[in-house]
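Notes from hallway chat w/ T.B., transcribed later so I don't forget. T.B. wanted the structure written out for a chain they're using in a teaching module, and asked if we could keep both sequence and structure tokens in one place. Agreed to drop them here.
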Amino acid sequence: MKKFGPRRWPKAAKRRRKTIPSRSQNRGKRAFVAVIFLLIFGLCALVVVDKQIAPILNIIAKQKIHMEITKVMQEAVNEEMKANPQYANYQELVYMEKDANGNVMLLVPNTMKLNLLISDIVLNIEDKIQKMQAKNLSIPLGAVTGNKILSSLGPNISIHIRPITNISSRIQDDFVSQGINQTHHRIWLNLESTFSVAVPFDSEKITVSESVLLCESIIVGPIPETYFNLNATLPGL
């Protein structure tokens, strides 16, 4: 009879315990992923703003500032001419000498009065520009779309301006034929200045030039053979 030894039973397999992450660990991972996502999204947004939106904003800002500065220059001239109506009289700014037949023989600018007038105009412009800098100049973000409906929508983007050069002024005159034996003589004031225009992520320089008519007169007869060209007489006022 075959004898059997003690029966050996297989050892029970060891159970592996699964590590279940805690709620705090899950929250930490989610927060980390969210931060990474926000950083990537923020960098992409900055690239889009820098490459696409900022240049358009700068163009719109320059157009607005150019329009505002031009308006200021024209207003300053009009205000000074209104405050000093005598300067609108051609003969106050230009001395005219005629011969016995009434023909104009000589034209000489009144440099003293022209200098006073231009000095007052430039000071007025500088004062208006300082007031403009104190204002909150802005353009709506929707303006970058180029759509008339959306151009006034969105948050306002601030525009900052800073004068880079002083306002330069120069007197210029010209003679224009007005038909038989008549000549139109006009005296212009040329104004120019350079500004720095800054919007978020971008800034650029612009030069604003404006020519304003000071006075004019019709000269009957031939153009005088002797006259002092205002461009040479009053350089760079």
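Follow-up for T.B.: Confidence is low (pLDDT under 50) at residues 232-237. Might be a good example for the class.
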